[in-house]
Amino acid sequence: MTVNREASGGETGLAGGAQAPSAGPDATRAEAVKSHKSRHWGEITLFTGPALVIFATFVILPVILAGYVSFFHWDGGGDLGKFVGLENYRDVLHDSVFLKSMRNNAFIVVMSLVIQGPLALGVALLMNRKLRFRAAFRTMIFVPYVVSEVIAGAMWRLILDQRGILNSALLQLGIFDKPADAIGWLSDTKIVMWTLMFVLTWKYVGLAIILFLAGLQGVPDEVLEAAAIDGASWWQVQRRITIPLLGPTIRVWMFLSIIGSIQLFDMARLLTNNGAPFDTTYTMAMFVIDRAVRMRQYGYATAAAVVLFVISLVAALLFMRFVMRRDNETEGGAV
Amino acid sequence: MANMRRFGVFAAVAASSALLLAACSSSGDDKNNNSATNGGNGSQDDAVTITWWHNATADPGLAFWQTVADEFEALHPNVTVKVEAIQNEDLQRTRIPVALQSGEAPDLFQQWGGGEMVAQVADGYLKDLTGLVDDDVARLGGSVAPWQVDGKTYGLPYQFGPEGIWYRPSLFEQAGITGTPATLSDLSADVQKLKDAGIEPIAVGAADGWPAAHWWYNFALQSCPTDVMQSANSSLDFSDACWTTAGEKLQEFINTQPFNTGFAATSAQQGATSSAGLVANGNAAMELMGQWNMSVMTGLVDDVDGLLADLSWFPFPSIDGAKGDPTAMLGGGDGFSCSAGAPDACVDLLKYITSDDVLSRFAAEVGGIPSAPAAQSAVADPTLKTIADFMGKSNYLQLWLDTSYGPTVGGAMNDAIIQLFAGNAAPADIPAAMTAAAAQQ
After folding, report:
1. Which domains are assigned to chain B?
2. Which pTM value belongs to this model?
């Protein structure tokens, strides 16, 4: 690439040489390369500049400011208050509520992968075959993902409430005698985490399926045909060819799922009324918001937010380093 | 590999368009607020726009405040009042703090008084009304106290009332209960009778935190001597043994399982399955709540007259042998403050809102106990009359504990109480959490 660019730059330089007759061909060429280089950088600045400015202003700067604020006992108003150094961090890492929300997030990360992964893979493999109404099925599966998180959370809350639509229907069917006997989908501490997992699966499995289906389009027909000619059964084809070739897609989805689960907030907040019952479904993001806006401990909440950020970052980097390394290397080699 | 890149592009486009949408919608909001909060102290005839944020998102309160704003505009032709009704928790916890912090505060906004207002005053966000509203302060009387800091007035209340237990007389009758419980043991006996009759005794919106916490507040008020309660408001000293006794008594009560099934996930005010909705729809017999509860409940049923004919109130029962004043009551109110940069017309509007005439109509049309004693005669509803009577007979009125102690101590207290309800905390953990939070402030 570099060679080409210099060659074309040289030509331009020669054409423009008439304007500077005294200069030798070498000097003209160098000047031309220089002017081309400055144009090259001008283009880069023009196209990436605005994006970088916005990114720096709304992402980088807030992150740095958050790091700064987390060293203070700030109550959210007026000046930053007392400088306390790392005290907020020490406290937050000993806060039983934060540790509990951390465990909840870990549970959601693992269960999201374990439940959604195989489910989405199965559906995607089925739907990749010739099927009537395939487009309609795809749309239906993707609809929950498109629905706003807030609407989905509020809707499921209406359905799953103690006296909600589901329990009312079960009551009508005679499964319970009175509302007090109904199942506390959202109020029983033993059940609610699974209720949350169900709704999360309903909401996000569509994304996994669509990603997998798109990935399946990239599996070369020749390989499949070759396998068919060799007499491989449908199962063998899936197990030995399709799924391994789908690997990069699966790993990208896992990455998105893990980061999403760590940062889970809006839908869970609506569905379980901010972590009810008794903080059983409390997540780290809820902790951050709650400490800040309800208890006005902005410094403390920011320290928790930084911890959440570091956890996400470390998870992302580790995943990139150890799981997605292969994909990235292949891509680099291909180019 | 080409596919991989396509996903990347897809994900990037999806993510960035989501971000853009979010950014656009929120900046749209901001623009509205900006144009509305152009403050400035113009002369009388300059056109002035006042923004007014209140928490009455449903009728009759919503329509009433709009009427008041229209009347004020008619009286002051140069003033435009832009009224915005915002859901209570959003308003208190997010919208107002963010607006104050960003320097784009609404001119007139909901003010609950207490520790939270003390912090706003310390940060210089509120207009000092001292000298501008002296006659109104004298007219409104003692209920103004939570809106004052160090003798200076930073807001005026339009309603003030104590909390107690709202109940459905028809369900009490169905369970064979006569009269209302005067002591905690009476209440426990009634709870058992209701359970025997297959009626859910007490609804509580524990998912929202504070409704459950109010049970502890009342146990504390009954368990602690008045001087301990009074001094704790400013000293934040919770070392007295009575703070633990309150939790022990409450724990005993919780163990009798008096609350609605699934109370841990029940919200207080939203929809028919909230605690207010359960009582309003006859699915539970009682709810401990402030005097605003009537307007919440009437918003959750179709047959308002039927509900009002079968809804009554009694004060929180006293506890046998406890150290607190049996007539002591917990209460609070709602008021408005002007932000520091608000035009003078804001003060005029506030004076108009809290005038005897407007508050009389507020009492009659919205339902609630007006802060102005002269307007209290306009309270038409027999239940609210009962509440006003009990308030008159009370020896000590304590502001909501979480409001009084401020968000940090109040929040830690409410969280600890919820854990007591969950069975995860001991009674002594509550004052311990409050003391720890007070030290962190």
Report:
1. 41-161+332-389 (3.40.190.10), 163-331+396-440 (3.40.190.10)
2. 0.78
